[in-house]
Write a structure and sequence with these properties.
545 residues, alpha+beta, Cytochrome p450, 3-stranded antiparallel β-sheet, 19 helices, 14 strands, binds protoporphyrin IX containing FE
């Protein structure tokens, strides 16, 4: 007995046991201090904490598991119904700073956040997720860096040559697509409209950005199992891969470790090589032309973004570096390419389910341009119903569905009347706001383009940037809003007038985040990317009219 008592006392006095006891005591203290949230985040009772938090690490495991990711936006709407317009999530990503996320669905909060891009910053560089592909371009910057990027881009949009080039370019691209669709229709082939529209906008935006077409819509195609299948385009594929991998980092704690193990790091590197080589080649060609005195002037009918940037200077009157040129161009490509193509894809999907909407679109297009006429820039004013359809599509499928801003100093959110503290991240969802009865009335879930029409249907209500944030708002409002609406109107009016679109192959489970044999119970047709694309192919059978 004496021997046993001696050994126990010895054991208790041993250094290993002392360390262990210390660790247990520290953990117990931390569990006591942070029972429902990540370590180093503050206790607060004014914002409900989303369920799923564990002591010390908060919602870390929930983020790691990616629970509900397949229906993340529908899930967000469910959570708003459950908790109300405010809720909180905290995450301690082990080796980085803790995240303290405040979700709001109050438009007054969002308006205040957007109005003040100094108190609420994007802070996109802090987690390095988009470093490789977007560098220091407009989407990634805050403060003075953003101001000069914005000035450069905004100047471009006021140059007449560029504006004309832009408008004409998407009319021409739409005609090119129309020829392809006519071939598909004549041969009875199914087309993936999302793929084709992404090729269209990739070509127009590479032309607008670099003056050189990526050639995505001109790739060879073949008929395979009744479908028109176009060969992949290296530049477009590389851009998609880079954006997807960069975006997925945001939802993966410790992504820099996982990327080395799962091969995505290598894929990103290869994609960036293709993108950077394309950009570098174009730059060499442009510089050669400039050296020969053949550079384009602002009045040139094909004055492009790179021409503009090569003439522009930094705030210190220095020419832009090659890295800055590349970053600006890739940000522009991101801004305009996927957004419009995906919104148009949602539009064809919505319209194909509603013969009455298709009929009205056709009637309006026929009146404006006749049976065989082309859509022109001047005709756009005669197509209010078409623009209303585009706006209604964006209301229900906000293309930038979730946005977050980091707080730089303690302040109050004026709609919810709660404080937010330095380093909190305020998050809202334009997607969820499209489904809010408070904002849109009891028929919010109905697809009703008429809600946008004023003056007996002769014109269209402006985007209300106080309650509806699909194009952002405040000083960082989307620079391409008008262009996107024009492009949407051209494509919709031209193609719906020429073709009848029948949506097919939707019973494929791989196209849905949550599949159910009953179509009304399916969810998550959207994809996991920066913008709201569709999961998988969006197949249509066409009938020329
Ligand atoms: C349906 C089409 C479009 C939608 C829904 C859309 C939406 C948006 C949104 C929500 C933002 C803010 C993103 C953020 O949080 O930083 C934004 C920014 C921007 N957009 Fe668009 N966009 C569209 C098309 C375009 C087009 C066609 C262009 C160019 C021609 C363009 C150029 C830009 C630029 C340059 C910014 C950055 C503004 C800044 O940070 O100051 N967008 N857009």
């Amino acid at each position: 007995m004496a021997i046993l008592a001696f050994s126990l006392a010895d054991l208790l006095a041993s250094p290993a046991v002392s360390v262990l006891t210390g660790v247990v005591a520290v953990i117990a203290l931390l569990v006591f201090l942070y029972p429902d949230r990540a370590i180093f985040t503050r206790a607060r009772s004014d914002v409900p904490m989303e369920e799923g938090a564990v002591p010390i690490v908060g919602h870390f495991f929930m983020a790691l598991k990616g629970k509900n990711r397949a229906r993340r936006l529908d899930n967000h709407i469910d959570l708003i119904k459950k908790y109300g317009p405010l809720r909180r999530v905290t995450i301690w990503p082990i080796v980085d700073k803790p995240l303290d996320l405040i979700f709001t669905n109050n438009p007054l909060d969002v308006e205040a956040v957007l109005k003040d891009p100094y108190t609420f910053i994007k802070d996109s560089k802090s987690d390095n997720t988009f470093d490789e592909v977007l560098g220091d371009g407009i989407f990634m910057s805050d403060g003075d860096q953003w101001k000069s990027a914005r000035k450069l881009a905004a100047n471009l949009f006021t140059i007449r040559g560029f504006r004309d080039f832009f408008s004409r370019d998407f009319i021409d691209t739409c005609d090119h697509l129309s020829e392809i669709l006519t071939t598909a229709s004549n041969q009875g082939l199914v087309v993936d409209i999302q793929d084709l529209l992404l090729r269209c906008t990739m070509d127009s935006f590479t032309r607008l950005a670099y003056g050189k077409d990526a050639g995505a819509l001109s790739m060879k195609w073949a008929a395979k199992n009744g479908r028109m299948v176009m060969e992949p385009n290296a530049f477009a594929n590389a851009f998609d891969t880079a954006m997807k991998i960069s975006f997925q980092r945001g939802a993966k704690p410790l992504w820099w470790i996982f990327e080395r193990l799962d091969g995505t790091g290598k894929q990103l590197k290869e994609a960036m090589e293709i993108i950077d080589n394309f950009a570098a080649d174009v730059l060499v060609e442009k510089r050669k032309l400039i050296a020969q005195g053949l550079g384009k002037s602002e009045d040139d009918e094909r004055y492009d973004l790179l021409d503009h940037l090569l003439k522009s200077t930094t705030d210190d009157d220095e020419p832009l570096s090659d890295k800055a040129l590349r970053d600006h161009v890739l940000n522009f490509l991101l801004a305009g390419r996927d957004t419009t193509a995906q919104t148009l894809t949602w539009a064809f999907m919505e319209v194909s389910k509603r013969p009455e909407v298709a009929r009205k679109l056709r009637e309006e297009a026929m009146q404006a341009m006749g049976k065989d006429g082309k859509c022109t820039y001047d005709m756009l004013r005669q197509l209010p119903y078409t623009l209303a359809v585009f706006n209604e599509v964006l209301r229900l499928h906000a293309n930038v569905p979730m946005t977050g801003k980091t707080v730089t100093q303690d302040t109050i959110l004026p709609g919810s009347r709660i404080p937010v503290y330095k380093k909190n991240i305020v998050i809202w969802s334009s997607f969820a706001m499209g489904y809010s009865p408070d904002l849109w009335g009891e028929d919010y879930a109905e697809f009703r383009p008429e809600r946008w029409l004023v003056e007996q249907g002769k014109s269209v209500m402006k985007q209300n940037t106080k309650r509806h944030f699909v194009f952002n708002g405040g000083p960082r409002i989307c620079l391409g809003m008008n262009f996107a609406q024009q492009e949407g109107t051209v494509f919709l009016s031209t193609l719906i007038r020429r073709f009848d679109f029948e949506l097919v192959n939707e019973d494929d489970p791989s196209k849905w985040g949550v599949y159910h044999p009953d179509p009304s119970k399916r969810q998550g047709r959207y994809d996991e990317t920066v913008t709201l694309g569709l999961r998988g192919a969006v197949d249509f059978k066409l009938r020329a009219i």
